[in-house]
Fold:
Amino acid sequence: MICFVGAGPGSEDLITVRGQRYLTEADIVIYAGSLVNPGLLKYTKEGCRIYNSAHMTLPEVVQVMEEGEKAGKMTVRLHTGDPSLYGAIREQMEELEKRKISYEVCPGVSSFCGAAAALSLEYTLPGISQSVIITRAEGRTAVPERESLRSFAAHQATMVLFLSSGLAEEVSKELIAGGCAPDTPAAVVYKATWPEEKKFVTTLSELPGKMREEGISRTALIIVGNVINSEFERSKLYDPGFTTGYRKGTDSTEVPAAGKEK
Structure:
């Protein structure tokens, strides 16, 4: 069996229970050494063959998978965060499908969740933003024009930028050109949930200078939007006057005593 496993954002204890179990059962592990916490490899059993994909090409990765499958071995392909986001897993899956090799995916905790936790942030706030745009700045890999930062800026939704910490000047320039105010709040989380995590809050116009000052140019997420340090409306979900499928709304703001119901 081949299983793509999300390793989580960094901290060893943020891999899922299922993902950890697969690691303990694996005969072969191919892990993204440039991003995955190597401490997770302690869960592997004695004799497990371990490959660092940072030094491998796609054909080499697939060859290891194929050889393992022919030998009846269980292979875990360990990706950072959740493999569905910038994990380059679709191309691996297609190669496996060509060879009629079955696989499954074990989801993981994405780094954008870890970044929100680090900042004590809720990405979706009533009256501020009800949408989250997960994207990246254009670098060596092109981005479709319809998905440019400049075009996304018009939505004024919360934005989380992966793979863009080395392009802070471009991020700031394009978002402001697209309609974001220069003083729009921006936050950066470097290596979210790792022991060496760093974070700061600034503004869109000051973002490039602040990142240079902090020496951050890789392995960081950029969050942009008014959900950072902003006033907001309270959710209707727990409003005493709001009726849900589980309780009837009331004009009273009295809070029932713990363990009691009205």
Q: What stands out?
A: Confidence is low (pLDDT under 50) at residues 254-262. The chain has seven helices and ten strands. The helical segments are 17-25, 58-70, 90-98, 111-118, 149-153, 168-177, 207-214.
